[in-house]
Design brief:
single chain, about 230 residues, alpha+beta, 2 domains, four-stranded mixed sheet, 9 helices, 4 strands
Amino acid sequence: MAKSKLKLKAQVLRRGGRGIREIVAILKIPLSTTSYWCRNIPLSKKQQQRLIRRQRDKAYEGRLKAAEILRSRRLRIVESLNAVGVSEIGQINDREFFIAGAALYWGEGYKKQEIVGFTSGDVEIMNFAIKWFKKFLDATNKDFILRVSINKNHSDRIHEIQKYWSRSTGISLNQFIKPALILAKQNKTYASRKSYYGTLRVVLRKSTAKHRRLMGWIGGLKKSIC
């Protein structure tokens, strides 16, 4: 996900052992914003000692230790809730998978055009959709047409990005059509240029009938819950 330049700079400074107030002074950003951006970045004992020596303040040492305790506690809570969530979902059956996929398509799939298609920048969501198309619309790998959409600034990485999506989905590079190059209105900064892979569009060939069938399933969802 793209981050603002200031956010990235703040996090780099924090990982380097800078204090929150030091970062505020360097970047001229609010204390509350800096604290929020850096709240999950741990400091090594050496970095903590450096800040304590700099402050020469026992109260600061206590605040630093308290902040580390809160950060660790927050991460433990998040991990615990994730584990509970996985347990509560458990193993889903075919009907649950069918309904989950229909709901996902209702929210994000192509509905106005009479073709089955889906776009996302999330690999796991794309693989979920592809698996669902195969299971419930009898699609095979050869039925898919893929296209990546990327920022024009990454046009030199087209082949690398297509290989990433081909490897992630298990669909041949031969089924990728010419990518869409987008001229972004606002410049975005990424933690790593190589972590950017744009979005992937997947369309099923000759899928008008399948699309109409899918719309019927979505109609069933609407009727049952709305």
